[in-house]
Amino acid sequence: MTLAELQRLEHEYAMPTYVRNPVEFVRGSGVRLWDSDGNEYLDFLAGISVLNVGHCHPRVVETVRDQVGRLSHVSNLYYTEPAMRLSAALSRSSLGGKVFLCNSGAEAIEAAIKLARRARPHGKVVVLEGAFHGRTYGALSATPQESKQAPFAPLVPGFVVVPKDPDALSAAVDEETAAVLLEPIQGETGIHVLSEELLQAARDACDRAGAALVFDEIQCGMGRTGTLWAYEEPGVVPDALASAKALGGGLPIGALVTGPRLADAFHPGDHGSTFAGGPVIASAALVALEICSDPDLLERVRKAGDRLALGLAALPYVVSVRGRGLMQAMDVDRHLDAPELARRALLEQRLVVNATGPVTIRLEPPLIVTDEEVDEAVARLGALAP
Known about the structure:
Layout: H1 3-13, E1 25-29, E2 32-35, E3 40-43, H2 46-49, H3 58-68, H4 81-93, E4 99-102, H5 105-119, E5 124-128, H6 137-141, H7 146-149, E6 159-162, H8 166-172, E7 177-182, E8 185-186, E9 192-193, H9 196-209, E10 212-216, E11 240-243, E12 254-258, H10 279-292, H11 295-313, E13 318-324, E14 327-332, H12 338-349, E15 351-352, E16 354-355, E17 360-363, H13 371-382
Parallel strand pairs: 3-15, 5-6, 5-7, 7-10, 10-11
Antiparallel strand pairs: 1-2, 2-3, 4-12, 8-9, 11-12, 13-14, 14-17, 16-17
């Protein structure tokens, strides 16, 4: 099919929930993509932090092919080895409690909200300004963005929004709080790293009030920041964390991982999912988790992230750069238009990035990116200078 034919099918049959770029990708390998015309692209978005191991990683491909040829689904009414092994691996790599497997990041957040309210019934959930936790009703209710919430009101009640200020957060948490839910690094609103002081204030407030501290690591986890989990860098340990995106090595999965305190808060029948932890997806996730846990790879992420940040800061139209590891954002001169720059990068320079706002461009390449590919991406962005 031609691109025009795909656009016609979209217009006639696909709900208009996305603004797609006029490119059809047909193949990927490592940090590279190819479109239907044979053009090669450098991918510095990784499917929005999904392909941390790179496109079509050989081990992921081999594992999926093998598993789908033996068993693809039986439901959670029965045991499968990949699901149990993945639950163990996630727990051992992080908080040491128990795991609920699901199908997406939003589902992991929904599970986290239910878990917190199972532990403290009817409790409120404190969230931060600038947060993004998903588009299903509970996750959307935890996402204090008027443009996303207003068309779908009324939302789930009981959410309290506070500024990214330690004192304000502490004051909002009391004995009626079920959870504080936050992203250690806010991704969708432009890569904003929360301070260690703020994270510690959340931890202390939850400890005082007996509330659960839940970290949304859907985008910033799985090695993206140079540690397997983002909470490891500041050293503030949550009671639960949500994972998804890169966990499946390119396939859809989510997980809620608890520490010991919340490990048995759910009872049989409290929550469930037909497809969650299916053997194909769980097998892929086991491989992706192992790859992203490699200390040598994580060291490379930190070094490559520093190299990328320095390169971006040297661009003549860039005002500021922020982030950690290979989760970086650059703010451009206010006279420029970041969405248009991202579009030009795609169509003129064959570089995949995206804009998260009018002046912000986000860069999240696969963690296997080389120094040469970092420099190549910076050079392509430099070619866009007015």
